[in-house]
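Q: For a teaching handout, I want to show students what a protein-ligand complex looks like in token form. Below are the inputs, and the small molecule is beta-D-galactopyranose. Please produce the holo structure.
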Amino acid sequence: MKRHWMLRAAALASALCLMGTIGGCTGSKPDAKLTQIKIGMTLYKQDDTFIATVRDHFVEAAKAREAADNVKISVNIMDAKGNQGIQNDQVDKFLSQGYDVICVNEVDRTAASVIIDKAMAADIPAIFFNREPVSEDMQRWDKLYYVGSDPSESGMMQGNIVVNLYDADPDAVDRNGDRKIQYVMLEGEPGHQDAAIRTEYTIKTLLASNIRVDKLANDTANWQRAQASAKTALWIEEFGDAIEVVFSNNDDMALGAIDAYRAAEIPLPVIVGIDATPPALEAVRNGTLAGTVLNDSKGQAQAIFEIAYALATGKDPAETVPQLEGRYVWMPHRMVTIENVEDALAD
Ligand code: GAL
Ligand code: CA
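A: Here is the structure, written as tokens, with beta-D-galactopyranose included.
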């Protein structure tokens, strides 16, 4: 009975709002008249540590706004399980069920055009995040957005963590004293902008600081801790204690490297990651991880939510989301080392 009444009240409210668009439905609290907003989100892989934190912060942001604006926001989050075909089907479902906006963490960022075609045909805006579509795709429609972080910035910060350690005490990094850093590089998924560009800028930063480097090995571990641990175990067998630095495109893989060193029972070299996930911050605190770079999952989730909310309520995100540069949001990073890890843990 009560539910029935609420539905009628909601229908009436939206009818009022529709009529109001002619007479001006733009009071100070227009949101109070909305019945329900439906946001669909699809994740490339739900068990990815960083992506899971983005998801959790997104749900929190939606709940907070629901309470603050007295609207019903329904968020449907689906796991594409690393399969672009599954993700395309999920997008089809959202579009055919009349979602107001879709948020897409693509499995294959170069395959965005298929999803863009579908969204354009349904006239439902799309916010891509974390896995950046190529700019040709982004330019196809003015209802496409991207939220992420600049991989050249995180790469430079990761490089600078090692530059700072080296400058403070070269022998602590360059253990064989040849004034070159022997390193290995654990890379994220091939084709991911954060893998290629972070790798490039990390090394460029060392070279720009006149630190000479010697690459012993590099390989992908697809962002994953277990894969990184297996790769590092092989490198330890091959190079032993000649590895002076393990660079890793993300924290999970850096933690995998630490696992391998612990299993091999040899002293840890300098190991650096990116993301500042909770277990990585613990590792910085206990000294096994020399540093990481905060990839602001909360800030990114909030930006995705704010853009989605604006689009779903008929507003221009450019007016409500100050971080937007055109249709892009680039969330800034921050370096995290033993010196400021307590602040990062407290955030
Ligand atoms: C990166 C992040 C990785 C992984 C990847 C997934 O930005 O650093 O840990 O989550 O995104 O696309
Ligand atoms: Ca050396």
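A: Two things your students might notice: The two ends are 45 Å apart (CA to CA). The mean pLDDT is 91.
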